[in-house]
Specification:
This protein has 204 residues and is an alpha/beta fold. It has a single domain (3-202), classed as Aldolase class I (TIM Barrel). 44% of the residues lie in helices and 15% in strands. The protein contains nine helices and nine strands. It has helices at residues 3-9, 21-34, 48-59, 73-82, 94-102, 114-123, 138-145, 165-170, 189-202, and strands at 12-15, 38-42, 64-68, 86-88, 106-108, 110-111, 128-130, 154-156, 176-178. The protein has a six-stranded parallel beta sheet with strand order 5-4-3-2-1-9, with helices on both faces. The protein has a three-stranded parallel beta sheet with strand order 6-7-8, covered by helices on one side. Strand 1, helix 2 (21-34) and strand 2 (38-42) form a beta-alpha-beta unit. The two termini are 24 Å apart.
Length: 204
């Protein structure tokens, strides 16, 4: 499935920054039960490749599992070997996008300007991560969507919560990267389930 197919199932991407391998499967189960279909483990988490492998093994048939804060082509190789299928970067990194696409993976690089957006699409990006979205606004997204190719999936990331999802959705966001509003280090699976339910409800 393409990125848009996963986002159609549920437009929320759960960013599990700081998650530990020993807890990641229980948290993944809570997210799965809530209907969330895309999970990202940032590489600056403890033993991230272990967590990605555990998620991919247990949920890979029904969830898109990948990595965030990906900086190098070598990391793309490692994530692919661990079973990850999605590469998310904090920056406009053409070589990382091309490395992911060469391995048949999905790539959602970060961008903040139209120049970066078009460069990432040219590199083969499946979607674009508007980051940090706290420094932008739904109005900025609406203006960018007027010039981006129709169907381009733009996902604001940073400061997204149940309160501002509707405004971003109205501006044309195809999905939302959710960090601390869905998981903070130390959160139990029960806590994550409650947060996830609130976010899903905000989608309308």
């Amino acid at each position: 499935m393409g990125l848009n197919d996963w986002l159609t199932r549920c437009p929320l991407i759960a960013i599990l920054r700081g998650v530990k391998p020993a807890e990641v499967e229980a948290i993944g189960e809570a997210l799965d039960q809530a209907g969330i279909a895309v999970v990202e483990v940032p590489l600056n988490s403890p033993q991230p490749l272990d967590s990605i492998a555990r998620l991919a093994t247990r949920f890979g048939d029904r969830m898109l599992v990948g990595a965030g804060t990906v900086m190098t082509e070598a990391q793309v190789q490692d994530i692919h070997a661990a079973g990850g299928r999605l590469i998310v970067t904090p920056h406009a990194a053409g070589p990382v996008v091309r490395a992911a696409k060469a391995l048949g993976m999905l790539a959602c690089p970060g961008f903040f300007t139209p120049t970066e957006a078009f460069a990432m699409l040219e590199a083969g990006a499946d979607g674009l991560k508007l980051f940090p979205s706290e420094a932008a606004s739904p109005a900025v997204l609406r203006a960018m969507r007027a010039v981006l190719p129709p169907g381009t999936a733009v996902l604001p990331v940073g400061g997204i919560d149940a309160g501002n999802i509707p405004a971003w959705k109205d501006a044309g966001a195809a999905g939302f990267g959710i960090g601390s509003s869905i998981y903070k280090p130390g959160d139990s699976a029960v806590a994550v389930a409650a947060k996830a339910a609130k976010l899903v409800a905000a989608l309308g």
